[in-house]
Amino acid sequence: MSKSADTRARILDAALSEAPETGLAGLSIARLAKAAGMSKSGLFARFGDQEALQTAIVQEASARFRKAVVDPAQSEAGAAARLKALAKNWTGWQIGLNGAPCPVLQAAFEAPALTPKAAEAARQARRDWTAYIQQLARRAALEGGLPEGTDPAAFAFAFEGAGLAVQSYAAIQKRDDAGALAEAGFARLFA
User: Fold this and answer.
1) For residue 166, which of 73, 102, 104 has the smallest C-alpha distance?
2) What is the pLDDT of residues 44-76, one digit of tens each?
């Protein structure tokens, strides 16, 4: 990795570490520069403006989510197995954040307070996730892994509801039973 890429990665790591405390929209350049161990001008030299910085943070959060949740599920045979792996990975991802909010969900919830481009990146990440779940539900029904006639939109809504409940139980309420409850909730969805 080049020095420039390494510095950019260090800034994005610092931003994702600070965002649970300040919110993405509330993350000041001064605080981020201090957390990244650099000057404010050095930070801006890497991104140019607040919108580019916020957008890069949202994109990095989405990339980490894909790497931890989506990519490992790709090796599963069949759409239903892939959906089950996504449910397990998503739950594990959120619980593995040790009480911090999921940065992709945090960005989406904060979208009205973000710069326009960053807000759209956050919304698009959620739209892409929903579309992917719907696509897999449609395929799973065709393959026999879900009941024939499964409504992909309704399935995705219930799937996301279970995942958002994990966010509430693990990150907001700090409940130790979030993982077990998520497993049971997703199991009912697939039953």
Assistant:
1) 102
2) 888 888 899 999 999 999 999 999 999 999 999
Q: Which of 128, 130, 127, 154 is nearest to 141 (CA)?
A: 154
Q: Residue with structure tokens 């497993």?
A: 183
Nearest to 11 by CA among 40, 136, 150, 96: 40
Distance, C-alpha 2 to centroid of its chain: 27
CATH of 58-190 among 3.30.70.260, 3.40.309.10, 3.40.1190.10, 1.10.357.10:
1.10.357.10
Q: At what angle do helices 152-166 and 178-190 cross, to 10 degrees?
A: 170
Note the pLDDT tens digit of each residue in 72-109.
999 999 999 999 999 999 999 999 988 888 999 999 99
What is the distance between the alpha carbons of residues 62 and 142, in angstroms, rounded to a whole number? Answer: 29
Give Dmax over CA atoms of the chain in angstroms. Answer: 58
